[in-house]
Amino acid sequence: MSGHSKWSQIKRQKGLADARRGQVFTKLAREISIAVRQGGSDPQANSRLRLAVQRAHDNNMPLENIERAIKRGTGSSDATALTEVTLEGYGPGGSAILLQALTDNRNRTLSEVRNVFSRNNSSLGESGCVSWIFEPKGVITIEADKVDAEEVALLAIDAGADDVKVDEATVEVHTQIQDLEAIRKTLEGKGIAVSSAELLQVPKTMITLDEQSALQSLKLLDRLEELDDVQHVFTNADFPNEVVEKFQG
Fold this sequence. Notes:
10 strands; alpha+beta; 3 domains; Alpha-Beta Plaits; globular; Arc Repressor Mutant, subunit A
């Protein structure tokens, strides 16, 4: 079970809370707006926008919010001011941290991220220090208790998936970026309910942390996710189940 998967599960569970719902919608709206700015407002001609809108639907974002974000991307000054920033660093126990942000003030974002790292026994690194550990993948997530995991794995591999990872909570299908949408449609065409389908940075190698470092790392990831400018946070840390339960408790 990858650390990416466990952290994704924790994020989804925490994201269900009303306190975080507004922040989730804000980040989704930013992603939609930047996608429109870069590739136009027609989802059929803009794959990044299609994925952003689908992700918004997956998170139950209201249609009017989605339409407002698309309009904002076509001409609003706050959308055109956004810049994509990738930052890298080292977490507790030497784990790799890669984060993606959308910001209208790079210096502010850099300062906020550095402050979170320094307060959590971690350090922000130079560009390229850990990015080589990750590779972009399409990741389709399905709730394991709603499907026959073996059947899903066979269908996904037949449809062209690279890998399928199964645990007690989820079935996670990894694809090449260009195959993500087609494989999702294939699975849904077979009646399989997809929880999410995203383009993510998946670690090539994992690092196992002791309990103290794992708890510190989870707190660090959570605080990074809370920053308004941060869109995604990825790690190669592997979290023992008992540590995840303690963190969630």
